[in-house]
Amino acid sequence: METPNLPAIRALRPAWNKGHIVGQKRPLKPKHVWVIRVRLELAENHRDLALFNMAIDSKLRGCDLVRLKAVDVMASGQIKERASVLQSKRQKPVRFEISEGTRVSVEKWMEDELMVGSEYLWPVRFHERLHISTRQYARIVRDWVTSIGLTPLNKSSGGKERLGRITKKGDRYIRKLLIIGMTSRALMARNKPEKADIWTAKILAEKPFRLATVAMANKSARVIWAMLTKREEYRQPIA
C-alpha cells in the first residue's frame, strides 16, 4: 500500500523583518550631525569626534573607514586636505576632501598616547587586533544616534529582553534636551561617583551607558509631568 505524500506542516511564524525597514538606513540630517558633533566635543572624546568627522567627510563604507591608516590622511606631519583610499570591495581609489574641522579633530586624536606607534588611524587597546572592527564601529554609531534620541529598534533572541523605541510623541526639542542633560549628569556620575545619587549609580552599574541615559531622561520626563499636572514643587527622593 502506497503512502501518499502529504504536505509538511510548518508553524506559521511572522517574518523577522515584517513591518520593519531593513537595509540601508536614512542618512542623518544636518541638525543631527551638529548635535552629535557638539556632544562629542563637550565630552572631549577625541577618538569618536575624529571618527565621526572622517566618516561624514569621506562617506566611506565601514569596512574601509576602520582600515584607514595614518599615512592615508597625513603627510609631512600635517593632515592632508585631500586623501585617496582604495576601496576593498570594488578595488577602485576614492578621493575625498578633509574639512578644516576634521583636520583639527584628527590632529588632536593623533596626539593621544594610544596612537603612539600605531599604523592604523583607529587602533584598539588589545594587541591582537590592529584596528577596530566593523562590529565595534556599528556599536559606536549606535551610541551616537542613541545619544540624541534616535534609538533604532533592537532585535535580539535567546530569551533576552528586546529594546523598544523611544516615544516620538511630544516636542522633539524637549526630548533632545532631556537626553543631552541626562548624559551630562551620567558623565559627572561616572567621573565623580561621590556626587552621584543612589539611583543613578545603580542604573549606570546595571545597564550600558546610553541605555542608562535614556532611562534617566524618561524618568525626568515623568517627574516633570507629575509636577506640572499636580502643581507641586520638586521633592528630593529619600535615599
TrEMBL record:
Domain of life of the source: Bacteria
Keywords from the UniProt entry: DNA recombination
Segments forming domain Transposase IS116/IS110/IS902 C-terminal: 148-188
GO biological process: DNA integration; DNA transposition
Keyword Protein transport (UniProt): no
Record's keyword annotation contains Amino-acid biosynthesis: no
GO terms, molecular function: DNA binding; transposase activity
SUPFAM superfamilies for the chain: DNA breaking-rejoining enzymes
InterPro entries: DNA_brk_join_enz, Integrase-like_cat_sf, Transpos_IS110, Transposase_20
Protein's UniProt name: Transposase IS116/IS110/IS902 family protein
Lineage of the species this protein comes from: Bacteria, Pseudomonadati, Pseudomonadota, Alphaproteobacteria, Rhodobacterales
